[in-house]
């Protein structure tokens, strides 16, 4: 009989983003498997959904980057003891400090097992090193695992790669949007009916490669006139100036009718499905590259810089889309070739949501079934 676990996940808030999405996915899987799921965060728009799906939510400002946040350490320690928690899973740095300090101060014979997930290429510092102090450290890609092992003194046996995943039921290969959506889409964007569409998903920040995208569209239009670029993603108020600068550059280069800024959209799946190529052009390596995987899962060609998680996904699923980082000439040639005669995207892939959830719950069970932490196991040390 499978042991019923009580799992606490800690993260800053439940607004939006990959960390939040992964937290809800794991919480839902725990509940569906008959376990008890508790999430500690400052709340947000996803908190209601979390509770509706059967988890418990403890609303604390555990992600605030302030020394005052450490006042939550004894409160968390009491919660862990009172609820007889089996697994404590930290997903972000400030919450991880609170979690680790609370966990470290408990009786090793009675405390939960401690797990951390490294979701990104954090700056190397003692502050970031807390993410390597889990008894098991989950890396969301091989690229992240290499980054952790190269920069921190961590036993490789403690670091487990569990790739993020997408649900192929929601991103089926060959997906075609509903006719009603298509009619509304082409009514709003009639010029796209006879254009080859390049789509760059991502919030408007200087690191996401939007300026490269503008230059890419400009170069492609020198060779053919049937190309149109879509930028899908909103911007934080503090990036409003950059957004205006980018839109002004598009006008000044004569691309106002060739690049459309769509802002934040809830129908990115449908937009990618009617695109010819989906791009990832982040200057810094992505830890995973979810939109690249989503596009390929739909059967839509994807291209991007061959680094980080995006390069890893392309290498596994669509090597034709890999481009040497920063080589704009190579990017233009590669995308032109994909527009002219794209190799088909193979159906099926290993990066599924089900695989991610099964491996995560298996890790929880493996730790819980092994009993309390043993001092002779040792712990990783910060740099």
What does this structure look like?
The protein has 14 helices and 13 strands. By secondary structure, it is of the alpha/beta class. The protein folds into 2 domains: 185 residues, 3-Layer(aba) Sandwich (Rossmann fold); 162 residues, Glycogen Phosphorylase B (Rossmann fold, 3-Layer(aba) Sandwich), CATH 3.40.50.2000. The longest helix has 17 residues. The mean pLDDT is 92.
Q: Low-confidence runs (pLDDT<50, min 5 residues)?
A: none
Main sheet: strand order: 3-2-1-4-5-6-7
Mean pLDDT: 92
- What name is given to the CATH topology of the largest domain? Rossmann fold
SSE string, helices as H and strands as E: EHEHEHEHEHEHEHEHEHEHEHEHEHH
Rg result: 22 Å
Keywords, please?
2 domains; 14 helices; 383 residues; 13 strands; seven-stranded parallel β-sheet; alpha/beta; six-stranded parallel β-sheet; 39% helix; Rossmann fold
């Amino acid at each position: 009989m499978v042991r019923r676990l009580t799992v606490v996940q800690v993260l800053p808030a439940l607004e939006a983003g990959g960390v939040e999405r992964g937290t809800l996915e794991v919480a839902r899987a725990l509940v569906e498997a008959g376990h008890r799921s508790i999430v500690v965060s400052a709340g947000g728009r996803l908190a209601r959904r979390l509770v509706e799906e059967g988890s418990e939510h403890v609303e604390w400002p555990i992600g605030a980057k302030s020394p005052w946040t450490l006042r939550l350490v004894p409160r968390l320690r009491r919660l862990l003891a009172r609820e007889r928690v089996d697994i404590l899973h930290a997903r972000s740095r400030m919450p991880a400090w609170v979690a680790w300090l609370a966990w470290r101060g408990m009786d090793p014979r009675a405390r939960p097992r401690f797990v951390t997930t490294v979701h990104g290429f954090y700056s190397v510092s003692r502050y970031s090193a807390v993410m390597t102090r889990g008894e098991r450290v989950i890396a969301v890609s091989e690229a992240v695992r290499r980054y952790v092992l190269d920069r921190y003194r961590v036993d490789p046996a403690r670091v487990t790669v569990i790739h993020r995943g997408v649900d192929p039921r929601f991103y089926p290969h060959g997906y075609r949007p509903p006719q009603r959506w298509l009619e509304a889409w082409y009514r709003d964007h009639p010029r796209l009916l006879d254009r080859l569409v390049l789509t760059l998903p991502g919030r408007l920040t200087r690191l996401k490669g939007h300026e490269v995208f503008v230059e890419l569209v400009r170069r492609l239009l020198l060779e053919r006139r049937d190309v149109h670029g879509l930028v899908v993603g909103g911007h934080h108020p503090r990036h409003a100036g950059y957004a205006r600068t980018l839109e002004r550059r598009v006008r000044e280069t004569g691309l106002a009718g060739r690049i459309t800024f769509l802002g934040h959209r809830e129908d990115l799946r449908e937009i990618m499905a009617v695109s010819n190529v989906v791009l990832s052009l982040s200057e810094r390596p992505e830890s995973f590259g979810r939109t690249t995987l989503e596009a390929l899962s739909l059967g839509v060609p994807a291209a991007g810089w061959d680094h980080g998680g995006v390069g890893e996904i392309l290498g596994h699923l669509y090597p034709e889309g890999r481009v040497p980082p920063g080589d704009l000439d190579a990017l233009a040639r590669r995308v032109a070739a994909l527009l002219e005669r794209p190799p088909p995207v193979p159906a099926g892939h290993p990066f599924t949501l089900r695989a991610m959830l099964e491996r995560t719950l298996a890790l929880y069970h493996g730790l819980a079934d092994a009993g309390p932490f043993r001092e002779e196991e040792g712990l990783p040390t910060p740099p």
